Automatic annotation (TrEMBL):
Residues 8-124 form the Response regulatory domain. Coiled coil: none annotated. This is histidine kinase. It comes from Archangium lansingense. Residues 155-383 form the Histidine kinase domain. The modification 4-aspartylphosphate is found at D58. Signal peptide: none annotated.
Length: 385
């Protein structure tokens, strides 16, 4: 077994001989951290708190007693089991250790090797079991919250379908009525020319088309939400250029005052539904725009895509605040967010990863704090017959 995989025990004693004896007796069974002063032990605990399963301390030491050390260790490493080594004359220390340091065991010098070994093994087993229980509880809480969100999502999808239906019907009616208005206005413009009115009439068809496209997208979002809530799968393909263009329009309000957005790529189709792809892109673009807060420099967002053999690599890059290295592994976890309370739900990136993975693709994030972030999606390209 690799020594780094062994469970860790911290032993604190100001006597160098005792430290060597402890290492000689238990070094083959456990990974041992030895400290000769309480101050050294507290510094080590701050650095290794997630690695240490048992803290064993001598009672009589200069500057700080073992009880005081274990009491402070409760804050630094609450998951570690705490044990005290004392002498016959230190019974009050034992009482204090139980009340203040909440030790699980104490030993009287000279300690018995078999007794200490059994206590260390039990302490580490208990620490690992408690950690697993907390992990299971955490997953159960996340599952409960996600189940609730699923119910809410289904309700939102149901409520969206009504207004979307009204919007689609009114757009169709408006298009028919507009034809009459345009014909009537065109006759009058021939006799009384008005460049302003002519420009408005010229723009109206494209505005109506945007409304119709928006209504269709909302319907697709509602159907997608309903399908996700039911666990259904909606297979489709999408033109990356078209979806990017539409996602940029939808994100315009979030991006406008924060960054300049550019797109670059050739038309290409991927085996990914347009609604889902738009949902992923919209999340990434909005996140990129929000990352500009507090940077003090002009924001820049780039959406680019290229073909690579059987795949399409779609990238959303920004020059925002970036993400620290220790948080980069967590950003795709459900309910994890780096945004202030009330701003983010912690679901955007996790949903993006889930959707892309379900479509047979992959997600990679790279970021440098203070410089920016780049999210790369690898999607399967539609193969031409």
């Amino acid at each position: 077994m690799n020594p780094s995989d062994l469970p860790a025990v911290l032993y604190v004693d100001d006597d160098a001989l005792n430290l060597r004896v402890f290492e000689a007796n238990f070094g083959s069974k456990f990974r041992i951290f030895r400290c000769s002063t309480p101050a050294e032990a507290l510094t080590l605990l701050e650095q290794k708190r997630n690695e240490i399963g048992v803290i064993l301390s001598d009672q009589r030491m200069p500057q700080m007693t073992g009880v005081e050390l274990l009491e402070r260790a409760r804050t630094l490493a609450p998951d570690a089991k705490r044990m005290l080594v004392t002498a016959y004359s230190d019974m009050q220390a034992v009482i204090d250790a139980v009340n203040r340091g909440q030790v699980s065991r104490y030993f009287v010098k000279p300690w018995d090797r078999a007794e200490v070994l059994a206590a260390l093994e039990d302490g580490l087993k208990i620490a690992r079991l408690e950690l697993r229980i907390r992990e299971v509880e955490g997953r159960m809480m996340k599952a409960e919250r996600l189940a609730t969100l699923g119910q809410v999502t289904a309700g939102i999808a149901h409520e969206l379908m009504g207004p979307v239906g009204y919007l689609s019907q009114n757009v169709a009616s408006l298009r028919r009525d507009l034809e009459c208005v345009v014909q009537y206005a065109s006759k009058h413009l021939a006799a009384d020319a008005s460049p302003e009115v002519a420009s408005v009439l010229e723009d109206l068809p494209s505005l109506l088309q945007d409304l119709a496209t928006g209504a269709d997208h909302l319907r697709g979002v509602a159907l997608g939400l309903r399908a996700q809530a039911r666990g259904e799968d909606m297979e489709a393909s999408a033109d990356v250029a078209e979806v990017v263009s539409f996602a940029v329009k939808l994100a315009r309000a979030e991006v406008r005052d924060r960054a300049r957005i550019t797109t670059m790529g050739e038309p290409v189709k991927v085996t990914f539904g347009p609604v889902k792809l738009c949902q992923v892109l919209l999340n990434l673009i909005v996140n990129a725009a929000q990352a500009m807060e507090g940077t003090g420099r002009p924001g820049r967002i780039e959406v680019r895509w290229t073909q690579r053999e059987q795949n399409v690599v779609l990238t959303v890059a920004d020059n925002g605040c970036g993400i620290s290295s220790e948080l980069q592994e967590k950003v795709f976890q459900p309910l994890f967010t780096t945004k202030p309370v009330g701003i983010g739900t912690g679901l955007g990136l996790s949903i993006c990863k889930e959707l892309v993975t379900q479509a047979g693709g992959g997600v990679r994030l790279s970021s440098k704090q203070g410089e920016g972030t780049e999210v790369e999606l690898t999607l399967q390209r539609v193969q031409l017959p």
